From TrEMBL:
Stated name of the protein: Uncharacterized protein
Domain of life where this protein originates: Eukaryota
CC annotations in GO: membrane
Keywords linked to the UniProt accession: Glycoprotein, Glycosyltransferase, Membrane, Transferase
Organism of derivation: Microthlaspi erraticum
Gene Ontology terms, MF aspect: glycosyltransferase activity
Amino acid sequence: MKVMVMEMEEGFKDNAASRLTNQSRSLLSMRPLHILLLFLFLTFGISVAGIHMIQFLRIQHLAPTTLISIYDHGSVTLERFVRPPLNVWHTMNDSELLWRASMEPRINVYPFKRVPKLAFMFLTKGSLPFAPLWEMFFKEHEGIYSIYVHALPDYKSDYPMSSVFYGRYIPSQAVEWGEVSMGDAERRLLANALLDISNEWFVLLSESCIPLRGFGFIYGYVSESRYSFMGAYDEEGPDGRGRYRTGMEPEISLSQWRKGSQWFEVNRKLAVEIVQDTTYYPKFREFCKQPCYVDEHYFPTMLSMEHRILLANRTLTWKDWSRGGAHPATFGKDDVTEDFLKKLPGSEACLYNDQHSQVCYLFARKFAPSALEPLLQLAPKILGL
């Protein structure tokens, strides 16, 4: 019996030892798996924390430099809010820019001395061939004008620091004639100009435009007008109603369809209406394809639908369509004479503040670069520069 008990005890011990060895081996084999799971858990935790930290830092960086550049380290003051940007360059995309530009005070009385400025917005491919003429035009009128230039993205301006055009090229996108990108560029110019709260009137010009009067006269003419200068005509035929597309319904009907000059002047109220529009512009983007031109139809149609009584229903920029074609006539060196320039401002009958006026145009186009020399010679006498 003792022998059997001993053998049973020895067998039991042997089995127990064997089970212990197997358990140890099992635990040892599971240890790498535990380590791997722990490593993956820590990695995941660090990744999540890193993502949140990046988002936090990105928001902290984005807000003061792009979206709400008026805020800076330190206290927020009214002077910081109303001070115009030192440089027109920024890192906002179009969605951010339009959103930022749509912000407007709801109280019309300004709690500070505000000198309203006239914003000149140049839409060009690159350089401004008449820059010397415009330099004469702006001379000695600092503080009551602003300049914004939209050129092709790859153009690098080289104006000296003494030039009024130095640092006035805004972030741009490619623009093609007759495409919706033209309307995008014009809205982009307006949005950039709206960032300066002192800009009250906005004039769109091209690189081939020239002034027909001195700065003082033009400033007074625009600032004292009860209307903004946007043409909005109900034109029949293929170049008017013929460009309408039924896909624009119900937001825009055929009876509301209008046409006007690409070159306009609007006040701040209408400029804000344009940049904040998310109802009509998407319709033009989708349905206004050649031979429909966004720049000729969107602005007149939208503004006449919403603010018809604020429009003078004419443009301030003279051009000659008498030769026919898709573009107005171009004038070179031999065309620029004293008599020619004298007749342009009053070449057509018009109303100014509901009264007949002898001056209907303040700008003219299209002029070739060769016209610069005679223009500079005649500017002091004819244009009062």
